[in-house]
Queue: 4 jobs
Job 1
Amino acid sequence: MRGSELKPIAIEAGGAALLMLMLGFGPALVISALPGIILIAGASKAPRPRDLIVRGAGFLLLAAAVLAFGGTSWLWRAGLFTAFWTAGVYWLAWYLKSHGNDALEKNALGAIAIGALVGALYFYPDRGATFTVVTELLVVGALISIAYAISSYVYSKLHDEIPLGSEGIAKSTPRKDSYAGELERAIKDFVERGDKAALLVEILENRPLNYPKWVVVDVVRKIVEHEDDLGGALTPTWLRVKYARLARERRKRLVSEVLHSLRMKGGGGVERP
């Protein structure tokens, strides 16, 4: 793993360890929990879908470290239950993903939240004070949501991938006129942002004059029908970042295939008379 890949993992692991110290966790517990924290942070660099196993293993190690140091409060027991539950959610998500079902990984935050709620209600000392514990959980949940929003922003910046760009695609054509420049910009818009409009217009408007439009339409149909899968509101941030990176890679491969097909047919404006 390159140093540029290790840096975000080290920053995340260090931040998590510092947060645990600030919350009053003892240094010995924090040190014992570091292997789990590092695995949790490192899951972002693991290949898909094994990253789910790595993430789950990290939460299991984290729970084991907390369990080894013991505790008596209901929050400690609820937190421990949530950590084990989260590990189970990620492992089940891996199993389902391996069998072609990604519903759980896309909604992992919701499944984890359910586990946290069940754990809190079960371990709360006064079972009759449901209103009180739910109110407390809503307050805690609001604080966690704010912290999660901030961490999500920081995480996305730390893991922002180097743009894939369009180099080697549009420039592979021998043409050096204004169309080549417009095509390159349109390719970059599609690869980096998923904007199809400019690329489709450039290809369709600059086809050879004697080249049937329906043939070009047939070639670019893959671009028209292409849809990115970027997860949803309940998809963990680290997975959404990976979805975005993989989507850029798929768009780059797609536009390369389409332009190659047009060049083989003599179309797409590459060899317009």
Note: The CA atoms of residues 230 and 244 lie 6 Å apart.
Job 2
Amino acid sequence: MEHKTNAVEVSFLKKTKWTGTTTRTLTFPVGELADRCLNAWLDITDESFSHATLPSTQLTERFSTLMKSDADQAAWDEFYKAVGEEFSRLSVDELAACFIELNDPSTIESVLWSDGEHEFLDSGCEHRY
């Protein structure tokens, strides 16, 4: 499903530097949000947090079933593919919220959206920063 946005880039501003960087701002193309959310989710090592941050109830139920079983890698790969597909169905605003939740929300101060020329407070690029 295509979600309309005028933004081409999104920036997440943190109180501390992003891991592996020398900056407090992480900026990337809006089109990468779903993949960035999936990758952040895949990086979670805490099973409870992984379970709690899945983007749908169906996926949380499926995750619980897989965790209780001795599922093979193919079953897990199918599940990861489904998680990625679910993230890709979310709006850019939902994805930004997920990205924050998956990347230490207590340290992320704000989100700015860019149309390539100016920064905005909203993904529709209507309210200039």
Note: The mean pLDDT is 94.
Job 3
Amino acid sequence: MIPATLPERILFYFGAVLYFGCAALLFVQSLRSGADRRPRRALALILLMWGAAHVAFGLQGTAITAPACHPVSVPALLGGNVYVIISLLYPLELARPGWITSIRVAQLLLPFLVVTGIYLLVLGLSGESVRDLDSLASLLTHIAEFNVWYRIVLYLSICFYMVYMFMNTGVAALDADRLPGDPSPAPDHCRLLQLRIYGAVMLCISLAYLVTLLFSTPGSMFVHRALSVLLFGVVSLFAARRPAGMPAKTVGQP
């Protein structure tokens, strides 16, 4: 167990209050009519997920579980994939109203499930145990072991979902210049601003997390959590302040 400092414990509880409070606000707002009901619910789900993580760490009291603090640890890699995937729901629904369906969410999860399934299957068949790494040098030392080198695949899976987030949220489509005489409605600039803010926020949080995965020092983990609390507070503020408008067209509508 690694002792948690007072600033870390304060951050756990403050983050949980902020995440749950903003999630409750967005959920209440989503009960009203308007174009942003579904995006707000998606963002509320993301905030609940981050709040639950802060509660889980806070309940450990004065210590943090050591396995999660090892460089490129398997729990951190798997959790990072899940968090990035769920964090995709808000920008995808915001850029493409009506995008979230059970089929599309299953398709979004499929690459992660396949990569994780291969990892668990091979470990089960080979009987190989999961090795805790003390540093990146340990990764190179034991790179011949499946449970070690396959972590690179899990790390790249996180990167894949991050790239997907930045390239497929419809920002370019919303920001595209219309041709003269184009009868299509003007881009929703407020929605475009939300997408840009969310993209910038997730870029900062993602880069901090990728660095944390590689080194897993107490300082890098604290910076990542503090940055997440601050920037998700900004995202929630902009999402909550957006005025309710006319219902947006859903995917597939002319």
Note: The CA atoms of residues 150 and 205 lie 24 Å apart.
Job 4
Amino acid sequence: MVGSRTLTALAGLLASLAVSVALYWYTGSVLFFLFVPFVPFLFGSGGLTDESARQPKRCDRCGFRTTEESYDYCPRDGSRLIDTDDDY
């Protein structure tokens, strides 16, 4: 099954193509193609997350530390990671 990120990317691609065709049809110019790569920057962070806003996690057994939210267990020994209050 297709993931939500893939569906979002495909929807964005289709919307971008539709806007591109509409602008070309209306103006007859392709100069807007120079502007299209910068559109994600106009609408916020573009999916990028602030590294400092993530809660650091660590392993009590081996000391492994991460701010990646996808880690729930230590990749070294398999123990559950705990949330820490200190900055990473």
Note: The mean pLDDT is 77.
